[in-house]
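Internal ticket - ligand job 399, cytidine-5'-triphosphate:
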Amino acid sequence: MFKGKKIALYVTGGIAVYKVVDLMRELIKNGAEVRVAMTPSACEFVSPLTFQVLSRHFIYLNTFEENDPEVVNHINIADWSDLALVAPASANTIAKLSAGLADNFVTSALLATTAPVFIVPAMNANMYKNTVTQENIEKLKNRGHYVMTPDKGFLAEGYEGEGRFPEKTRILDELKLAMRDQDMRLPLKGKTIIITAGGTKERIDPVRFISNDSSGKMGHALAEAAWRQGATVKLITTSQLETPGYIERLAVESAAEMYNEVHTLFKEADALVMAAAVSDYSPKNVEKKKMKKQNELTLELKKNPDILMEMGRIKAPQQCLIGFAAETDNIIEYAKEKLTAKHADLIVANDVGKTDRGFNVDSNEVTLVSHTDEPKVISLQEKSKIAREIINWLIEYYN
Ligand code: CTP
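stdout (structure tokens):
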């Protein structure tokens, strides 16, 4: 998402400047082009040379140091950037931005830029809580700037409070969210998509369950792919895989819990992608205490609700239903049967009989089976790429 992005990084005074060095490296590693400007206070904490060496570009420090008569540096960086990132943003710089002051290179460039402005405050907890700082932050938000909340925790002052520079992963997640929300052209903007992931667990007793080999990787990759195309994603998952902060995640365990979540959210959704491997059966009686060994044990199972089929029954014509079919033989034929039986718009059929694809691995080969087109094979590749192809099918469907 940062590939090719031109980011102007405005560094202001605070002990967190040393953490911004690492943030800048991460942005560059992810393909962003970064130019740095620093206030005099920022230079007290980390030498501009550190940023220069790592960004491989000179650092803007002084408004009046113009080496090239053809260029006015603070206007140039303001116009060049796709995004203005202020990190750390001190209480002082926040106050200046809110008042519209332009008394150093950083504040002058920020007053001149038309790029979206993303602010990462970091300061003493009392400075942050001070009404005047809060009023300044409100003003900046009302002007359309994105202002993060700092982390709570141990501050440089030696006590706990809210004001810490946020963890790098949180900054990157919120940056992606802010950047995505700026882009009005994304094809799934305004669409809400429910995605289910992982194998359900059907409890036998407090420590045992029936489940399957699904890892949730395909569903989680689909959630990321749909989000990137602008959708609001609700991921209902049994998996322990991590999700970025911008994806709404609902943790479930059993088929019954998954059914309830899907059923609650379905009315407001534009699409449902059932990537989860839902157990078809669950124990009729769940033992409250751990079962003791016996010579023989017969488990009585009852049929679980078929979530896809139930949603197929109640779906409105404009709602799109995508199901998966795990097959080892007659892949297309079985997928077509499921497409009709479950009133789905697309079945993603995957061959689970081979070890290099399908369950619990990073790659997959699938065939897209719909009512309108010839079956389309998406050849063996990473699940993230397969996910993009499936989401592209959904985009075409809406077109
Ligand atoms: N599904 C569901 N609820 C269930 C079982 C399955 O919503 N109780 C969904 C799955 O999430 C998947 C599709 O239905 O999208 C799979 O259909 P299913 O009939 O279970 O196919 P297979 O798992 O391939 O099993 P089988 O062919 O044995 O029926």
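Auto-summary: The first strand starts at residue 6 and ends at 11. The chain has two domains: 6-182, 192-398.
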